[in-house]
Amino acid sequence: MARIDSKVIFVTTSPRTPAKMIPEIGLLHTHFAGEKWNNETQRAFMELLREENFFNGEGANDPAFSARDRINRAPKALGFVVLSPRIELTPAGVELVNSRRKDEIFLRQLLKFQVPSPFHKPTENSADFWVKPYLELFRLIRQLGSLKFDELMIFGLQLVNYREFETIIEKINQFRIAKAQNKGNYKRFRAEFFDRELREIYSADISSGNTRTRETNDASITKFLKTKASNMRDYADACFRYLRATGLVNISHLGKSISIVPEKIQEVDYFLQHTDREPCFVDNESQYVAYLGNPQIPTLLTDNRELLEQKIRSEFPRIEFQATSTLQDLKNIFADELENRKEQILTAQVEAIKDYRLFEDINTTFEQILDNSLYDTPLILEWNTWRAMTMLDGGSIKANLKFDDFGNPMSTAQGNMADIVCDYGDFGLTVEVTMQSGQRQYETEGEPVTRHLAKFKRETEKPAYCLFIAPNINDACKAHFYALHKMNIQYYGGTSTIVPLPLSVFIKMVEDSYNANYVPEPRHVQRFFERSNELASSTDNEIDWYNGINQEALNWLAG
What we know:
GO molecular function: endonuclease activity
Keywords: Endonuclease, Hydrolase, Nuclease
Number of domains: 3
Mean pLDDT: 91
Radius of gyration: 25 Å
Structural class: alpha/beta
Number of strands: 14
Protein name: AlwI restriction endonuclease
Distance between the termini: 67 Å
Number of helices: 23
Helix content: 40-55%
Pfam families: RE_AlwI
Strand content: 5-15%
Largest sheet: 5 strands, mixed
Strand order of the largest sheet: 8-11-12-13-14
Low-confidence stretches: 55-59
């Protein structure tokens, strides 16, 4: 049981991307089902997790702690795993691992998450919690039409008791009025507004002098409020990501706002009307665990046969189904049609990309990435690079990110695969992208990138290369990838041709493709990577090789 000492909405923030839970709890169940969850199994789990590379990081300093951080938080809090007396997946966990429509599983579990609960008990110093946070956030978004990230962070997180819903609505409306009237700098306006709200939220702590934050002796109010503001940003970010996992919301990455997908409004209205707002089984853990792990509750629109039939006819009028079809048959039909529609949308996108109709949009998006003006920059970098690779040359280009029902990017690739894979017939290419910089770039990307390439070579049984793209390339990555050109390592399938390029140089390659008076072919791609091998052989240090291959990239279609 965790003690909650928060003054704002408490939500799970680990893993940061909810889809990461799926392979992780599957791995836990496969290797440790029926065992006790203790230091020994936790360390063993981390060893397997590092090998599978389902997440970025090593967990080397304290493997047992890292394991608890991955499993004891969201997977347990959302009812996917039970850790006592033995490790096991709940029925909801089994559904999450095996179900085709994982967004519906996430939705049911999020709607049940509550504070207080037998898992999360507020302390005397915490807020007066009585809320199902995600249920109320859906209600907030639905009533307001859309919700800016700042509005969720500053005001939405104050919705610790569902009875205060209208108060929060009024606060957000007043903020919007003040924002419209403010003719100065928005960043300064927001900071001043946020500071006032923070001082009100934490007034009791400030007046009593209880302002020392963890891991520091600094008890200044400035440091205290800065830490609380950072925590609230993390909570708001988690809310955005977990709500997005339901497939019911759109994220405006440029406007940094969240709204209900128009086609999903009826479904949202249904559970807002039929889901009890009151927390339940607060003092009965066995009943709460059974309730939380039940994948059939709460009731959704798709559980109502009549409404589901209406929805299928509304969205897919050409589809016919039999009166004898079971509810599960109808759900499968609906799921199939949603998937077919998504594939049609993505196919149309690819056609538009290959015809260079989206060149300006792709270019503009890269500019926004470099300006860091988007909500989820890593996701958009991965998505836009897939679009750019599709436009760049021939070949079959596949993004391993998750798309929603309407072909919009939803979450980045899971950690056990390359971000993008390209099939050029006689050879292949993996593409890896990251917003990481400095030493962190090398620590989180260096070895996994090499492993993904080796896995791809084994699976395709043909020559393959890798393109590594980041806003800036760390010196350690340059050295690492240069050395791999020369080192014949059996574990990685021999030498590894991995070319790191700054995003600005890759953008120039895309522009050259657009401006060329012919359509680039796979041979141009292969020539570029073979040139990297030649440079690695003819240079005696990574700097000369790196500068040489960047110069080649700037003129990759010349000759």
